[in-house]
Design goal:
171 residues; alpha+beta; Histidine-containing Protein, Chain: A; 2 domains; 4-stranded antiparallel beta sheet; 6 helices; globular
């Protein structure tokens, strides 16, 4: 299989899936290294394929991912131990955590899609933080970071803001 054939097959798989595909699983599927998959994804993005990288894997951005719900960016600060509490606060009030952003003094804005929509995804993300040898992005900026949150209404976004503020997370 040529690289172009592999990339076409990866693109087909991504378009067929509604949940992220792990880079390691793709590497195993095509009997290549994970680095080859990373390079394939970069080449496909250069060809203007809208592929998101999340902590759970790669996903092709479709209309249903581009939510029409109201969105708000929250500037927050909390410890690593409070990540799950922050996410659950947002989720329990009907919100979705779309991304995390840090403003780095040297590199500028660093943004990562999270697409955390339920408690299970929040717990999986938090477990990954606890078991990974790497640190979450917020460590780069003294725990300060931003989240874009979507919710069914502005009123719910107001409630989320109040709940994050009540917990001392909102800056």
């Amino acid at each position: 299989m040529t690289g172009e054939e592999r990339r076409n097959r990866i693109l087909t798989l991504l378009k067929e899936q509604s949940s992220p595909l792990c880079g390691t699983a793709l590497a195993n599927e095509f009997h290549v290294s994970r680095q080859v998959i990373v390079q394939d994804i970069a080449l496909m993005r250069a060809e203007h394929h809208d592929i998101l990288s999340t902590n759970r894997g790669y996903i092709y951005r479709r209309e249903d991912h581009q939510t029409t719900m109201p969105k708000r960016v929250f500037f927050v600060r909390h410890s690593t131990e409070q990540v799950l509490s922050e996410f659950m606060t947002i989720l329990e009030l009907g919100g979705k955590v779309l991304d995390v952003v840090v403003e780095h003094e040297i590199y500028g804005q660093i943004r990562v899609d999270l697409l955390i929509e339920n408690a299970q995804e929040a717990r999986e993300f938090y477990d990954k933080i606890l078991t990974s040898k790497d640190n979450p992005l917020k460590i780069l900026t003294d725990d300060c970071h931003y989240h874009t949150v979507a919710a069914p209404s502005e009123k719910l976004l107001d409630l989320i803001a109040q709940a994050l503020d009540d917990k001392g997370y909102l800056l």
